[in-house]
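dumping these here so i dont lose them again. two proteins, back to back, each one seq then structure tokens. dont judge the mess
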Amino acid sequence: MKWVTREHVHVDRVACPWLIKRFIDPEAEFIFVPRDTDPATITEGIPFDFKGVELGHHDGKCSFDAFVEKYNITDPAVLKIAEIVREADTHVENPWPLAVALDILARGYRMICKDDYETLEKEFYLYDAMYAYFKKQIEEEKA
């Protein structure tokens, strides 16, 4: 399946592709379009993180939250990542320090990567690491 979002990815537009590839559609292809693209004109692929689309921001939640809800993802480690992504992407007052760090890292990756595809490739490791950390933490809490 093809998934379409705005170019110059940042927190939510990296977190969502990570979630798609790891939990929804392992064969996903991503297409990046100009920021001012009207999502109604997208005919090939599922648009996400555009204003007014199903898989976008709603009621103070970010696009990552929309994916979690639509695809009924209940993995506690993913839900923890959702909290961090939401705080980093929606710029809440007094965010968790990890959300601030995620925003800073996302900005840095954009500065060192040649394009959005390279940013996804490199930043996926960050999300994989967070996922592994929270998965282990949750398992240890249950023990």
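---- next one ----
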Amino acid sequence: MKNDPAPRPPTEQVVALYDRACPLCRTEMHRLKAGDRYDRLRLVDIAAPDFDPAQWGFELEALRNALHVRGADGQWRIGVPGIAEAYRAVGLGWLTWPLRVPGAGRAAARAYRWIAPNRHRVSRWLGYREAGEEPAPRCDDGHCPTHY
């Protein structure tokens, strides 16, 4: 007999306004959504042609500079607190425990203020690909092809 947990009561969805055009952002948000067993996280792509920032009460430039997440309580959390809110929504809030270590949350927020506007460059540094981009060549045993 399988021991499934009881179904959870419906709750208001957490909404993440994210930049799907950013490889790092897209990968991380889609990874969270893939683990969203109770459909508590709604992803809204700010790079979509039909996206209207006025509908959400923000300027597009502000949305491009930081992740904006509306919690189930209706409150907006921007930047690192928004990331933590998205993780909590899908049941992975425990992974954000380092942010509660004294000073770590402030350090993360400072780092995020630089990373967010430079997210495409950071994506490339970390090996994330732009949509439609060819994968990097494989280098087996330290030998890389000289042409691709």
